[in-house]
Amino acid sequence: WDETHFGKMGSYYINRTFFFDVHPPLGKMLIGLAGYLSGYDGTFPFQKPGDRYEQHNYMGMRGVRLCRLFCAFLGSCLVPFAYLTVLELSKSLPAALLTAFILIFDTGCITLSQYILLDPILMFFLMAAVLSMVKCNSCADRPFSASWWFWLSLTGVNLAGAMGVKFVGLFVVLLVGLNTVYDLWDLLGNLSLSLVMFGKHLLARVLCLIVLPLALYTAMFAVHFAVLNKSGPGDGFFSSAFQSQLIGNNLHNVSIPE
Fold first, then answer.
1. Residue 187 lies in a domain
2. Among 71, 89, 169, 215, which residue's Cβ finds the most Cβ atoms within 10 Å?
3. Could you give the angle at which helices 93-104 and 78-90 cross, rounded to 10 degrees?
4. Which residues, in sequence order, are CB contacts of 33 under 8 Å at separation 6+?
5. Distance (Å, whole) CA 217 – CA 170
């Protein structure tokens, strides 16, 4: 059912047609990009569930069987992400393998990953954020090293990705936030650590886990509005001044007082 919505929105990006949706733009932009790179021209109407694709090239937007393209590829990444996360947390190879096999044979995960949906994209960023957080925690004994900075920054990038696909991504932001508070509280109680060094730890986390995600999240909307410059079904949700900037709108290039 949702393929008719998100597939259509991917077509809107390819055709640069403005629309409005309750979810942030990243997931739909990635769907549109995948379709564009695979040769899809954005002409399929996506009118109702079950419509045949016929001659339209949908392989880049919908994972079919062994073609792990985009959504299917992102869904398949959940298995190594889960494996590495559990292995890092437990140091147990059997536990990590069991986790991986559970996901490999999970029917729901397989089903969600083979359609044009936001769910595999969201789950990719959610699990990537957890993995990078766990990896960063493992570098706690060598703070400010290259690997520490890499995993901390990557955590921020994945947080922005999760929030940029669906607002449900807020839950992983909460998880990383609680982990960061616990980590900082532990550092504050370390009497061998100076307040200056604690301040550096705090500043690093503010930059990588707050400033960086917010900057990336804002940039997503900048790209969203830059790409969708033609009049479409989402015009009416915005002001007349905004509509005057959309090509093809009745108010295009009309001078409108503030």
1. yes
2. 71
3. 160
4. 13
5. 13
Pair of tokens at residue 179 = 């982990």
Structure tokens at 248: 């093809």
In this structure, is residue 257 part of a structural domain?
A: no
Domain of residue 114 covers: 2-237
CA 86/CA 197 separation, integer angstroms = 31
Q: Is residue 244 helix, strand or coil?
A: coil
User: What is the spatial distance between Cα 174 and Cα 28, in angstroms, rounded to a whole number?
Assistant: 24
Q: Of 146, 217, 208, 149, give the one whose Cα is nearest residue 176.
A: 208
Q: In degrees rounded to 5, what are phi and psi of residue 130? A: -65, -45
Main-chain dihedrals φ then ψ at residue 135, nearest 5 degrees: -65, -40
Whole-model pTM: value is 0.87
Alpha-carbon distance values, 124 to 77, 96, 242 (Å): 7, 18, 34
Alpha-carbon Rg for the chain in angstroms: 22
For each of the chain's 258 residues, which pLDDT tens digit applies? 777 777 778 888 888 888 888 899 999 899 888 877 777 766 666 666 766 666 555 555 543 232 347 888 898 999 999 999 999 999 999 999 999 999 999 998 888 888 888 899 999 999 999 999 999 999 999 999 999 999 999 999 999 999 999 999 999 999 999 999 999 999 999 988 899 999 999 999 999 999 999 999 999 999 999 988 888 788 788 888 888 887 887 877 777 666
Q: What residues form DSSP beta bridges with 67?
A: 64
Tally the domains of the chain.
1
Are 208 and 152 within 8 A, CB to CB? yes
